[in-house]
Amino acid sequence: MTCATSGGSIGSPPAACRHSPGTATARVFACAISGKWGYLERPWTATAGDFVYEAPGEGHALVAYDSAEPMKAFFIVKGPLIWLDENGEPDGFFDMHDHIKMCRERYEKAGIGAGCVNSLFR
Predict the structure, then answer these.
(1) pLDDT at 32 over 90
(2) Residues 56, 27: contact at Cβ < 8 Å?
(3) Residue 64's beta-bridge partner residues?
(4) Cα 79 to Cα 68: distance, rounded to the nearest angstrom
(5) Pick the CATH number of 10-93 from 2.60.120.10, 3.40.50.700, 3.30.70.20, 1.10.10.10
(6) What end-to-end distance do the CA atoms of the chain give, in Å?
(7) Which of 80, 75, 72 is nearest to 100 (CA)?
(8) Residue 2 scores a pLDDT above 50
């Protein structure tokens, strides 16, 4: 099953779901806040308090495992995420413009208004 993350710095997908495979163009730092998650290609499972480092160009598929608590993690991503197809080839990307668009949509839906996001930029 594939699911989408929240699009912000803190990801919280539904329990027991898998994110589309991808890679980052720069280092990624992650801290597990709650729940259980990992990468299908790796033998470890992150739980609350764990720190994860991803080297640039390392392909993986994030998976949130069933847990009593929802999977939440704080990610520091410098640069775009590159989505990979079933052959490991680039198949799209997700960058700051996508984050900003999602934030505007969420602020609008919450009644705060997209203009609030616009005020954060020069």
Answers:
(1) yes
(2) yes
(3) 17, 37
(4) 33
(5) 2.60.120.10
(6) 40
(7) 80
(8) no
According to DSSP, residue 70 is labeled -
Q: Which helix (H) or strand (E) holds 82?
A: strand 81-84
Q: Identify which of 37, 63, 33 has the alpha carbon closest to the alpha carbon of residue 48.
A: 33
Q: Side chain identity at 35, as an amino acid letter?
A: G
Q: What was the pLDDT predicted at 16?
A: 53
Amino acid at 61: A
Task: Compute the 3-state secondary structure of the chain and give helix, strand, coil in percent, each to the nearest 5.
Answer: 15, 35, 50
Query: Which pTM was predicted?
Result: 0.69
- Residues 33-85 have pLDDT tens digits of 999 999 988 999 999 999 999 999 888 888 999 999 999 999 998 889 898 88
